[in-house]
Design goal:
globular; alpha/beta; Signal recognition particle alu RNA binding heterodimer, srp9/1; 2,3-Dihydroxybiphenyl 1,2-Dioxygenase, domain 1; 3-stranded mixed β-sheet
Length: 138
């Protein structure tokens, strides 16, 4: 069996709000509850398992989550971001506000979720060859 990523835990202040945000912006099926988690399933079988962070004085350390999407999905997701007036950036350093990037002949954009996690959608893997990129964008 090949090694694959199955899930990761995403710490948040309100698991229902955070899971609803992600499913809404990415256009995914509603999250499902399991134990202390709200589970958001990706199309490739990997899940983001949202779990409330219970220390009211603690800060949630921002993590980065990147999602490979088709050109069509990029247009839909980016449209939802713009419709809601959400800030977005072309770079992970958040220096190029209100821009998208066109790295490796694809498109990418960064935006933050309600807990400050830095989310990204890309249409081509960074550093991809022309053949790899066309397969990812299909």
């Amino acid at each position: 069996m090949p090694v694959t990523l199955n899930h990761t835990i995403v710490w948040c202040r309100d698991k229902k709000r955070s899971a609803r945000y992600l499913t809404g912006v990415l256009g995914l099926e509603d999250a499902r509850s399991w134990g202390p988690f709200m589970i958001v399933e990706m199309d490739n079988g990997v899940s983001l398992d949202y779990h409330d962070f219970y220390d009211p004085d603690g800060q949630i350390i921002s993590q980065h989550y990147a999602f490979m999407v088709s050109e069509h999905e990029f247009d839909e997701i980016f449209g939802r971001l713009r419709t809601t007036g959400q800030d977005y950036w072309a770079d992970p350093g958040l220096a190029r506000r209100a821009e998208i990037n066109r790295n490796d002949s694809g498109r990418g954009v960064y935006f933050k979720d309600p807990d400050g996690h830095l989310l990204e959608i890309i249409t081509r893997p960074y550093g991809a060859t022309a053949e790899e990129g066309s397969q990812a964008s299909g």
